[in-house]
Amino acid sequence: AIDPARLWDSILDTARIGGTAKGGIKRLTLTELDAEVRRWFIAACEAAGCAVTIDDMGNIFARRPGKDNGLPPIAIGSHLDTQPTGGKFDGIIGVLSGLELLRTLQDAGYETTHPIEVINWTNEEGSRFAPAMLSSGVFAGKFTKDWAYAREDRDGIRFGDALRDIGFIGDEACGAHPLAAHFELHIEQGPILEAEAKTIGVVTGVQGMRWYEVTVTGVDSHAGSTPMYLRQDALVATARMIEVVQQIALEHAPNAVGTVGLIEARPNSRNVIPGETFFTVDFRDPDDSVLSAMEQKLTERLATVAASSGVAADLTCIWNSPAVHFDADCVTAVRAAAVQAGFPHRDIISGAGHDSAYVASVAPTTMIFVPCAGGISHNEIESAEPGDVAAGATVLLQAVLAMDAK
Amino acid sequence: AIDPARLWDSILDTARIGGTAKGGIKRLTLTELDAEVRRWFIAACEAAGCAVTIDDMGNIFARRPGKDNGLPPIAIGSHLDTQPTGGKFDGIIGVLSGLELLRTLQDAGYETTHPIEVINWTNEEGSRFAPAMLSSGVFAGKFTKDWAYAREDRDGIRFGDALRDIGFIGDEACGAHPLAAHFELHIEQGPILEAEAKTIGVVTGVQGMRWYEVTVTGVDSHAGSTPMYLRQDALVATARMIEVVQQIALEHAPNAVGTVGLIEARPNSRNVIPGETFFTVDFRDPDDSVLSAMEQKLTERLATVAASSGVAADLTCIWNSPAVHFDADCVTAVRAAAVQAGFPHRDIISGAGHDSAYVASVAPTTMIFVPCAGGISHNEIESAEPGDVAAGATVLLQAVLAMDAK
Ligand SMILES: NC(=O)NCCC(=O)O
Ligand SMILES: NC(=O)NCCC(=O)O
User: Fold this and answer.
1) How far is the CA of A133 from the centre of ligand 1 (A)?
2) What's the confidence (pLDDT) of residue B134?
3) Nearest beta carbon to residue A190 from set B226, B265, B271
4) Which parts of the sequence bind Zn(2+) 1 (chains A, B) (predicted)?
5) Chain A to chain B, count of Cβ pairs less than 8 Å apart?
6) Widest Cα–Cα separation across chain A
7) Closest-lying ligand to the alpha carbon of B272?
């Protein structure tokens, strides 16, 4: 059995790395803080008897040998990077429950048949470098390494350069690494489990998601001396486009969501009519055909708003992650573990993207959700109960052992 | 008579300091580039026989003695700072035509009765540190020096610290400096003179302007897993508020203008519903009572949008610069100079704010406008014809000599 107190201590311990005044974490991918938590993680895994390897996307693999080391490992993976105003749980409990599992096996002197591997995936959040799940995506062959290396943050720093600068370009070629299975424990990040008083979400899949970038071009001009009728105000047009995104999502209620999370105006000066804006759109729905309908509406309506607002708009889809259905055997193992432990549970589809969504295309994969307070995530006040996290780690351990015994 | 080629050369010469690829200038106030153009200006004025003094707001006064140095000087003032995407003319021709006038008087060995002073006012643009016309405002007693020093840019750097860091806190107390008159040559920054084929705008006043800051508070949350009905999206609310600003201005057509020039979203991450935004509002109208009506609408409608969007909005008026009427004698001198030189001219009210608007409350003041292409300003493509700039400088010289002779 796992040690709930030790797991909780690890969570609080790493939460100091990038910890914020409001109790959250700001630990953006490939920053010095990310490097610090990576070093902590490697040392902890080595202390638990693992050999650590790193691939050329900075993904970290900590392997505990099994009886048959010719078998591919059963993996437990998630991420230690956070949003700019992130919480202490998103991704982190997935990695640290893997570490807790390693420690539990070591303490018990338990020998698995397969090797067991705990993985820290690089840049799951996609906040600094779009898209999300970048390195599990390269691992699964969705993106090339070169494409990933060329991704730029909003300051124009390339992913490959940032990875080199923190010293985490490993020797192994990303993807050259078969897995027998992949499990991921995560907070739900939504309101369903809490509302229904369930401890465990048996995750059957991940909804589809598409990301867009929009550049709106008007004309910079003086805010005081340019009459209203002569303006080509990129920000007024953008305001109307933000309303369009909101409306499209509402038209596909109750499942679809649509968000403008990032906006920049240029020159961003109080007395200058903005001549250019850049903003992003995030659309999600469990049904890819709904996403296609939403995309078509977006294309048409942004063009209409641009024309009526006297500006030009350039819309690009930069990421399309289709809906994912998890492996039936893995899902069954998680459900059985929840039943056996007597935890209230339900099947659930993930609203958030996860590394497991990509890994699912190259290895049998599923996830385990536990509730978070108010369903709030990507927020410094993100909160989960120690008992729920421990329940999730218990289900994780039992599901892994069940797969190992198959 | 002034030397049009020498004036134009000075414009092109200083345009290299902070010059941009698109042919504009990025020379934000109190940056190292601002310091560089200040040093250029001081050297040029000293070479033209002036004594230079600096006050504790960094305003630079270059004085050419007159016959009666007990009289207060007749001043020619404007600014050398620019917007982030500024042009080569806004403010700059006001200072450099003053320099050209000094050189012309020196070459001719002409002795004025009053001393003549050319002034470079600090932070006219108000882009880095709000509000605009900050240092002419302290000069005129509208703001205290302490209040001005405490103004912060968007990185939290204080005006007083930035002024010290570029080495331009002078010995003279700002304001302890009587002026017999103040003239300012400027591009119109609007479309009227060009549309009517007038070379000279005889500026009779400046419209009223008010600046506001708005902070909208919602709740950061996950863009994928937070259902639409649970969101408190600060950016969606802000989009509606931007539309409100636009509508209020249109309701007071044709004179009123309203602009949201600066916006920031937090945490500004593609997959996070923005929990907070900050944006600015710039309202202008020649009639202060219209501005009061606009302000009341803004207050009411932002509250309505906030309530219906599930967010809180905090609106603060940070600047109120009432409409200004320039001195009748100065205006008459400018109009007479335009007539005498045979330049097509018309009376005009300034849509932009200028240092002259504040100086007008402590000294007889007016301005001279010349056309700019398409009325476009606060844009790197801002453009003015050498002949028009020379015409403006000619009118400036004649108006100054007329006031000196009174
Ligand atoms: N789990 C999680 O928050 N992932 C970030 C990617 C996304 O869903 O936006
Ligand atoms: N002339 C000019 O552009 N001044 C800046 C202040 C303003 O009008 O916004």
Assistant:
1) 8
2) 98
3) B226
4) 79, 90, 186
5) 270
6) 78
7) 1
Q: List the one residue out of A48, A54, A21, A49 whose CA is nearest residue A35.
A: A54
Q: How far is CA B131 from CA A390, B91, B165, B184, in A?
A: 54, 16, 20, 20
The DSSP string of A230-270 is G---HHHHHHHHHHHHHHHHHHTTTT-EEE---EEEES--T
Give the pLDDT confidence of B164-221 residue by residue, as tens digits: 999 999 999 999 889 999 999 999 999 999 999 999 999 999 999 999 999 999 999 9
- C-alpha torsion sign, points B115, B118, B120, B124: positive
> And the tokens for B177?
């400096």
Chain B residues within an 8 Å CB radius of A190: 222, 225-227
Fill in the amino acid letter for B143: F
Decide: A228 and B257 in contact? Cβ < 8 Å: yes
Give CA–CA dist A348/A367, Å, rounded.
10
- Please report residues of A whose CB lies closer than 8 A to that of B282: 223-224, 270-271
Q: CA B376 to CA B382: how far, in whole Å? A: 6
DSSP-derived 3-state class of residue B346: strand
> Which amino acid does the sequence have at A358?
Y
Give me the pLDDT at residue B176, please.
82
Confidence label for B262 from pLDDT (cuts 50, 70 and 90): very high
CA-to-CA separations, A78 to A92, A99, A199, B33, in angstroms, rounded = 7, 11, 20, 47
* A89 Cβ contact partners less than 8 Å away, ≥ 6 residues apart: A11, A187, A372, A377, A382, A383, A384, A389
In whole angstroms, what is the distance from residue A364 CA to residue A390 CA? 24
Query: What sign does the dihedral A88-A90-A95-A101 (CA atoms) show?
Result: positive
Confidence of residue A88 (pLDDT cuts 50, 70, 90): very high
Per residue in A276-308, pLDDT (tens digit) is 999 999 999 999 999 999 999 999 999 999 999
d(CA B291, CA B288) in angstroms, rounded, equals 5
Q: State the Cα–Cα distance between residues A372 and A188, nearest whole angstrom.
A: 6
SS3 B69: coil
Quote the minimal CA–CA distance from A149 to chain B in Å. 19
How many other β-carbons are positioned within 10 Å of the β-carbon of residue A43? 11
Residues A302, A308, A311, A315: what is their CA dihedral angle, to the nearest 10 degrees? Answer: 10
Q: Cis ω on the peptide bond leading into residue A115 (within 30° of 0)?
A: no
Mean pLDDT score of chain B? 98
Q: Are A376 and A165 in contact (CB under 8 A)?
A: no
The answer to whether residue B3 neighbours chain A at the CB level (below 8 Å) is no
